[in-house]
Amino acid sequence: MNIFIVCVFPEIIEAFKSHGVISRAIEKSLVTIHSVNIRDYSDKSGHIDDKPYGGGPGMVIRAEPLIKAVRSIKDKYPSSKCIYLSPKGKKLDQKIIKSIPLDTDLILVSGRYEGVDQRFIDLEVDEEWSIGDYVLSGGEVAACVVSDAIIRLIPGCLGDPESNKDESFDNDLLEYPHYTRPETIDGMSVPDVLLSGNHQEIKKWRQKEAVSLTEKKRKDLMKKKL
């Protein structure tokens, strides 16, 4: 899988690539993450942004460097899918992440400033995605979030292949609570069932706790199950 992150600050992406699960996935050749600097596709002036037509605050990233950057990728990876990360996009959830074929080559375009010229979106973007109802100073962090969520699903990426099973949002439920050593902290003990060795009862307890937590913390998810 190839993930191309088109952005203004590739240093953010390079730092993201250097740690933890993502670094190991790259070392195992399970994924390749390319940081693509929009400035490399600017005109002779070196400018990638300009004032918005119609007035208003801030600057808008120009269409030309974005179009050149994306088309240079599509020339080599013609089946790649171009995603613009935007607060106006479809809000991502775990079901959408899991629906993405893991052999897909993705181009994640990270906006900045007041956004990007709409003509780039109309010409090159297949979908717009949002990671939540809030605004960031730039899309690089959003691209890292999306990449992490996808990459950890690639077989062989996680140290334990069971780690991405029974997680939060599977079956529209939050994940059950976890406990580890010591058995007692400040008078609070690990639930007896988890020490019993009875795996059937442990499974029942975890399911019950997942439902209880979801009802308490995310009623919106429970409504989906009704």
Give a structural overview.
With 226 residues, the chain is of the alpha/beta class. It folds into 2 domains: 150 residues, SPOUT methyltransferase, trefoil knot domain (Alpha/beta knot, 3-Layer(aba) Sandwich); 56 residues, tRNA(m1g37)methyltransferase, domain 2 (Trp Operon Repressor, Chain A), CATH 1.10.1270.20. It is 37% helix and 18% strand. It has 9 helices and 9 strands. Strands 2-1-6-5-7 form a 5-stranded parallel beta sheet, with helices on both faces. Strand 8 and strand 9 form a beta hairpin. The longest helix is centred in the C-terminal third of the chain and has 19 residues. It is elongated, with a radius of gyration of 22 Å. The protein starts with a strand and ends with a helix. 23% of the residues are buried. The model has no long low-confidence stretch (mean pLDDT 94).
